[in-house]
Specification:
The complex is a heterodimer of chains A (88) and B (451).
Chain A (H helix, E strand, L loop, with lengths): L2 H20 L1 E4 L9 H5 L6 H7 L13 H5 L5 E4 L7
Chain B lengths: L2 E5 L3 H13 L4 E6 L11 H5 L13 H6 L2 E5 L2 E5 L4 E4 L4 E3 L2 E4 L3 E3 L12 E2 L4 H13 L2 E6 L1 H13 L3 E5 L12 H13 L3 E3 L4 E7 L2 E7 L4 E3 L2 E5 L2 E3 L2 H5 L8 E2 L5 E3 L11 E7 L4 E5 L4 E3 L1 E2 L1 H15 L12 E6 L2 E7 L17 E2 L9 E7 L2 E7 L4 E7 L5 H9 L5 H8 L5 H16 L3
The chains are: A mainly alpha (88), B alpha/beta (451).
The complex binds flavin-adenine dinucleotide (FAD).
Flavin-adenine dinucleotide binds next to helix 1, strand 2, helix 2, helix 5 and helix 8 of chain B.
Chain lengths: 88, 451
């Protein structure tokens, strides 16, 4: 791993730590029309649309909370919500 | 083992299948559809046409999902239902038996009446196949004429612009979507369209589409102007696909009539006993005409959310539960000339819209209701917020541009929050409407434990 990758990995890890504290992506199903833009733009391939259909937060531990899906969604279905680290 | 047949693989049909399977693990569920592409996101077609999402992505269900629900699928067209025999008749003559049947056949674009509509290059936007056709035609086309109103007309305009086709947009009246938007909102949209290079022709009506060798080459307007174009895109409304129900002796008004449990009725007369409930035949989605407490009458929606909810409720009832469908304030988020716009509840302007003959895609008839309410509005740059203030609650709202307040007003309208504490402030001119609503929402949400 070169220095650049190391930095990158550290940044990702850092972000992930923040996530634990900061929150998760939460859908509001009634606004979703399943267009799939969210899943299409997820850099690590999480099927965000499926969460939106089922109305479940994106609890995938790999979620970077990069915000791509939240900002790309044309209908305001997704938002960040603070999650407690004590939550199961 | 109960045999369930679902006619239609749209969101209503799919939701019904999910609901049935959640109750009945062993029943036999078959989904029938005449659209070869099966289940995909119909609203997503607009984003496909602007190159924001690839075609493949529109399929929300994969093979695994159908497998998990143990759904059988049959690409076939249904001609008639024989309720007294508990059978359906396919176009190829085959008969299929059912114990419970759902009609979820959706809606189809109303064709234009002008001579020349059969020419190549005259398009509508109902299906994935239509979208593919538009993309193909756009590759060679120079200019296009778009006729109609509502959301789909603008989606067509945006799609054609995204494909670098010069667009002429014909409006029969003086402004865009006059029975839902107020004048300021119409002007905001029109201004943005013009900035994008769209040529709007006011008070212009299509008389005839001209062609050569079966291909559209231009149009003539009622006031005798000629315009060259290779594409004519029509979005003058949609009609529930109710022919099947009509041919089968069901009660049909503008859509297939259903009660609060989404059960159909017989039309009366003919071979069937008059006007009785058909306990084993249900309808849901764009094809159904459903009672709306907000409008005080049975209305037609062409909206994804209600189609999903109705499908789900029908599915539960079909599998033996008793669940009434309660229509909530119709809602959509769309883009009008690139401006994100949320429409909730009854917002109707006082005018009629000459560009739409029926309800349009992504629309509810309820929006056109003229509410017994006072309009309060705030404009900031291109952002606009209009709320319709009733006696005790908000009956409708439009949020254009900045969507910060979209969720707040959506919940306040849908849940009929008592706004008495802020009512006076809301209708008082020159008050910061956004701040008042945001503050109220924050308190209301805490008190009511809303998400
Ligand atoms: C371009 C576009 C944009 C839209 N935008 C929005 C939006 O922004 N927001 C929103 O809320 N809604 C929007 N809509 C509307 C939304 O897509 C519909 O409300 C929704 O798809 C309705 O679902 P449905 O299951 O009732 O019917 P449909 O999705 O229309 O499905 C009908 C099904 O029935 C089948 N069928 C019909 N007749 C027969 C027959 N005789 N035999 C066999 N099969 C048959 C068809 O093959 C199809 O599978 C849009 C629609 C379009 C086309």
């Amino acid at each position: 791993m070169n220095l650049k990758d190391l930095f990158k990995a550290a940044a990702v890890e850092n972000k992930r730590r923040q996530v634990v504290v900061q929150g998760q992506v939460v859908p509001e199903s009634s606004r979703c029309v399943q267009c799939g833009i969210c899943s299409f733009h997820c850099p690590i391939g999480i099927d965000v649309r499926r969460h939106a259909w089922q109305g479940t937060p994106v609890k995938d531990s790999h979620c970077l909370t990069c915000g791509e899906c939240v900002t790309r969604c044309p209908r305001g279905v997704l938002r960040f919500e603070k999650s407690s680290i004590f939550e199961g | 083992m109960t045999r369930y047949l679902i006619i239609g693989a749209g969101v209503a049909g799919i939701s019904a299948a999910e609901a049935i399977r959640s109750v009945d693990q062993s029943g036999d569920i078959t989904l029938l559809y005449d659209d070869a592409d099966g289940y995909y996101s119909r609203p997503g077609l607009a984003y496909y046409l602007t190159n924001e999402v690839p075609e493949k992505q529109l399929y929300a269900f994969q093979e695994d999902d159908f497998h998990r629900l143990r759904l059988q699928r049959l690409h076939a067209s249904v001609r008639r239902i024989r309720p007294s025999e508990h059978k359906i008749e396919l176009n190829d003559g085959r008969l299929l038996p059912y114990d419970r049947l759902l009609i979820a056949t959706g809606a189809a674009a109303t064709p234009a009446k002008a001579p020349g509509v059969e020419l190549q290059g005259v398009v509508k936007l109902d299906s994935l196949e239509d979208a593919r056709r538009i993309l193909k035609l756009s590759r060679k086309a120079h200019s296009a004429v778009v006729v109609g109103g509502g959301i789909t007309a603008l989606e067509l305009v945006e799609a054609l612009r995204a494909q670098r086709v010069q667009v002429h947009y014909f409006l029969r009246g003086d402004r865009y979507w006059a029975n839902v938007l107020d004048e300021t909102e119409s002007r905001i949209v029109e201004h943005r369209l013009k900035e994008e290079g769209v040529q709007i022709h006011y008070q212009t009506e299509l008389a005839e589409i001209n062609g050569k060798n079966g291909q559209a080459t231009g149009v003539r307007t009622v006031d005798n102007r000629q315009l060259r174009c290779e594409i004519v895109a029509v979005a003058i409304g949609v009609q529930p696909r109710k022919a099947l129900a009509e041919a089968s002796g069901l009660k049909v008004d503008r859509g297939v009539w259903v009660d609060e449990f989404l059960r159909t009725r017989t039309a009366g007369g003919g071979a069937l006993p008059g006007g009785e409930a058909l306990p084993d035949v249900y309808a849901a989605g764009d094809v159904a005409q459903v009672y709306d407490p907000l409008a005080g009458k049975a209305v037609i929606d062409s909206l994804w959310g209600p189609a999903r909810q109705q499908g789900y409720t029908a599915g539960l009832n079909m599998s033996g539960q008793t669940r009434a469908y309660r229509k909530s304030a119709p809602f959509n988020v769309t883009r009008l000339a690139g401006l994100t716009t949320t429409i909730i509840g009854a917002v109707g302007g006082r005018e009629t819209d000459a560009d739409l003959l029926e309800v349009a895609r992504g629309e509810s008839e309820t929006w056109r209701q003229i509410p017994d309410a006072i309009a309060a509005q705030a404009d900031f740059d291109v952002n606009r917020l209009r709320v319709l203030v009733g006696k005790q609650n908000l009956v409708g709202a439009i949020v254009m541009g900045d969507q910060t307040l979209s969720q707040a007003v959506h919940h306040l309208v849908a849940e009929q929050a008592d706004i008495t504490p802020i009512r006076e402030q809301l209708i008082h001119p020159n008050r910061p409407l956004g701040d008042i609503l945001a503050g109220f929402w924050a308190d209301w949400r805490q008190q009511h434990g809303a998400k």
